[in-house]
Write a structure and sequence with these properties.
single chain, 231 residues, alpha/beta, Undecaprenyl pyrophosphate synthetase, 16% strand
Amino acid sequence: MSKAKPNIPHHVAFIMDGNRRWARAKGVPTIEGHREGSLRLEKVIDQCGHRGVKIITVYAFSSENRNRSPEEIKGLMKLLGYFIRKKRKKLHKLGCSLQILGDPSYLPEDLRKEVNDAVELLKDNNKIHLNVALNYGAREEIARAVEQIISSDTSGKITPKLIERNLYTAGQPDPDLLIRTGGERRLSNFLLWQVSYSELYFTDALWPDFDEKELDKALGDYNERQRRFGK
C-alpha cells in the first residue's frame, strides 16, 4: 500500500524569535545572533521550497522593535541590507519572489533602495514567494486598511472582504501554519487578521537552531491536524 501524501501547508508564517538569547548563550554580541538568524532564514526558504511550501512570511522587524537600542537597530538595518544585497541572486536561483509588508518610510534610504532593487529583480519568479515584514505591526496594518477604505469614499459598508483587499497581503491566501521559535507562545502583533484560522506551532528551539529536523517536526505536527475553519 502506498504511503499517503503528506499535507504540506501552502503558506507558512514564521516569528523568528531567539536571536538575542542565542547570542547571549554563546557569549557573542547581539548582532551575531541576528547574523546567524539571517543565515538560518536562507536555509529555511530553501528547505520549505523543496517540501512544496509556496509562500513564506517572516517577521523581520516589528514596529515595536524601534524601541530597542539605537546601536542594535543600526546593526539590524545594516544586516538586513547585507542580506538582501548578497542573497538576492541566491533567491533568484531558488525561483523566489519578494514582497515587503509594513511601512518602509522608517527604513534608511539606502536600505529602501536595496529592497526595491531586490523586489524588481525577483518579481517574475513563481516557485516560492517570500513576504518580509519590515517595520510591521498588525494593528497598524488593519488601521491603515480601514483608513484607505474610508478615504476612497466607498458607499457600501466595511466588510471583512473589503478589509482583506486593503491589507499588505491582499491577493494572497492566509497562512495555513504559523511557527514561532524561542519558546514564547504569543503572536506579538503579527498578522492578527490573517492568522485567525491558522494552525499555531510553538517550539523552544531558538531561531538560529531551527534546523531541517525542527522544520520537519513542525510540518509533521501540521500534517496530523484537522482544519475545520469553525465548521
